[in-house]
């Protein structure tokens, strides 16, 4: 998955992309982002029902910010990990 991935994504796929999050918390966060206008939700009345999520144009305006955070993290994660190790080793 590359930067600026576009398109609709099903709940189960989002769960696979973020395995550390519980289904309950993921659903809460998606509802909040929908309320904030950052995520669009499409319900398909099928059996079983299908729901897809997609970022909105408003959310797309945040992509440069997230890309900057990823770049910073790629550059400095090693330093953060070393700082954590020093902190955890301190008496």
TrEMBL record:
Gene3D superfamilies: Winged helix-like DNA-binding domain superfamily/Winged helix DNA-binding domain
Keyword hit for Repressor: no
One Pfam family this sequence matches: HxlR
Signal peptide range in chain numbering: none
Coiled coil: none
Domain HTH hxlR-type: 1-81
Keyword set, alphabetical order: DNA-binding, Transcription, Transcription regulation
InterPro entries reported in the protein's UniProt record: HTH_HxlR, WH-like_DNA-bd_sf, WH_DNA-bd_sf
Official protein name in the record: Winged helix-turn-helix transcriptional regulator
Lineage: Bacteria, Bacillati, Actinomycetota, Actinomycetes, Streptosporangiales
């Amino acid at each position: 998955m590359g930067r600026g991935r576009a398109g609709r994504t099903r709940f189960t796929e989002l769960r696979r992309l973020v395995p550390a999050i519980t289904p309950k918390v993921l659903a809460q966060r998606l509802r909040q982002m929908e309320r904030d206008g950052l995520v669009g939700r499409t319900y398909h009345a099928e059996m079983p029902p299908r729901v897809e999520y997609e970022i909105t144009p408003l959310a797309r305006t945040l992509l440069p910010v997230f890309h900057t955070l990823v770049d910073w993290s790629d550059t400095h994660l090693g330093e953060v990990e070393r700082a954590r190790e020093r902190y955890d080793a301190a008496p």
